[in-house]
């Protein structure tokens, strides 16, 4: 009896061992199959074909095939995941990013209408940098100084190597079209002038203005730039007094906007719109050089210089209009120094005193006789995306969109002045579109100095220049007439590799421009 039980026990133990072995190999097989399945699934969903199932951009595939990542001398083809995900050797970062972006894209494909997507905005640098890990660029481009590289590229890449970490430099800042070809983008010094007649045909100079506008009274006039076909409207802004700044009761008030002070201003003329590319390219064509002669030096050495004495901008890298178009769009990316030089040139061309507006003149003109946050009706809290409740309720855009180009309606680029209505003085785009340079140095305590009543104030001490008006990327909270801001000179030249850095063009700010004012002759009796 004992022997039978023993045999039965041994038999059962043997059978149990076989089951365990069977289960082990079955589990091993299933595990291996699972790993292979997951891997193959990952491979499939890392293919270009898979990416384009959700990314229904009408030109994404075509622009990719036309780019240097497909069309290059080496015959190498770079795929979607090579650029848009961290390198695979960084396993955790690669797959977490893949899962996050995959879920986002799949959700968008399921519940959103691709016809509503703003593809142009998505192709701009501000959006692209979110989806191009810099380490992915370096994974392929490990040698930044390959055979045949130009001297300019060597300088740029040396600057990158020395400042990558310190300045958080991104490859895509200079190579935006590497992965998706854009005919309106280039990296390298601009040759020629956009819009200039390069066909070889004779230019009909009979259409050019021979004389500047003559002013016989303090009223709106149309300035004419001699030797060109460029004309622009100047608005007569009567002198007067107003309350400059804002109180703590105003929504989104900032400390540098107070205390309120009464400012009295002399009359002046102000350009109806921001200085356009047509105007700026006329200046560039007339003065461009490789020189570095400051305009103040020209005036010091010649009490009555001609325009040939003005040394204008050097050629910029790429298209400073960002491919958005020229014409009446505001000229952008120039430095405050370049804007002042433009005013010097315009003064010499017309025989008038053109300059940048003072900060007080700018706010007075922007308000157009009002003392409300905007020159039109509306509370900033209704228009702004700032605040907890904006997670649940959309900001209003009704009245503000008629007067302002800002984050909600700009499509992430500057727009032509015809897109908006003028303020009560007849000035367009005083708020939004591009920030505008002022003649003042920035002082956060400026309103606390000089007393409660001041006349024609101008701040001349400080490190940075005042800029006003917000731009096409701004929230409505930052477009109030009282909102103050200032240049960020070093930051705006962050990716400029030149030594010394350009005194004419900024490399890292696109929403900056200017408009001019003209001082009336005392004989006009303006008030």
Q: What proportion of the residues is helical, as a percent range?
A: 25-40%
CATH hierarchy class name of the largest domain? Alpha Beta
Q: State the secondary-structure class.
A: alpha+beta
Radius of gyration: 31 Å
Instruction: Note the total helix count.
Output: 16
What would you call the shape?
elongated
What's the quick description here?
With 527 residues, the chain is α+β, with helices and mostly antiparallel strands. 32% of the residues lie in helices and 9% in strands. It has three domains: 1-44; 60-173, no CATH class; 221-524, paralog of FGE (formylglycine-generating enzyme) (Alpha-Beta Complex).
Description:
- The chain has 527 residues and is an alpha+beta fold.
- The protein has three domains: 1-44; 60-173, no CATH class; 221-524, paralog of FGE (formylglycine-generating enzyme) (Alpha-Beta Complex).
- The chain has 16 helices and twelve strands.
- A hairpin with a 6-residue loop joins strand 1 (221-224) and strand 2 (231-237).
- The longest helix is centred in the N-terminal third of the chain and has 43 residues, at 2-44.
- The protein is elongated.
Protein topology:
Elements: H1 2-44, H2 48-54, H3 60-66, H4 80-84, H5 91-111, H6 119-122, H7 125-128, H8 134-140, H9 151-167, E1 221-224, E2 231-237, E3 240-244, E4 261-265, E5 268-271, H10 277-287, H11 295-301, H12 336-350, E6 353-355, H13 359-367, H14 380-383, H15 400-403, E7 435-441, E8 453-455, E9 465-468, E10 484-486, H16 489-492, E11 512-513, E12 517-519
Parallel strand pairs: 4-8, 7-11
Antiparallel strand pairs: 1-2, 2-5, 3-4, 5-12, 6-12, 7-9, 9-10
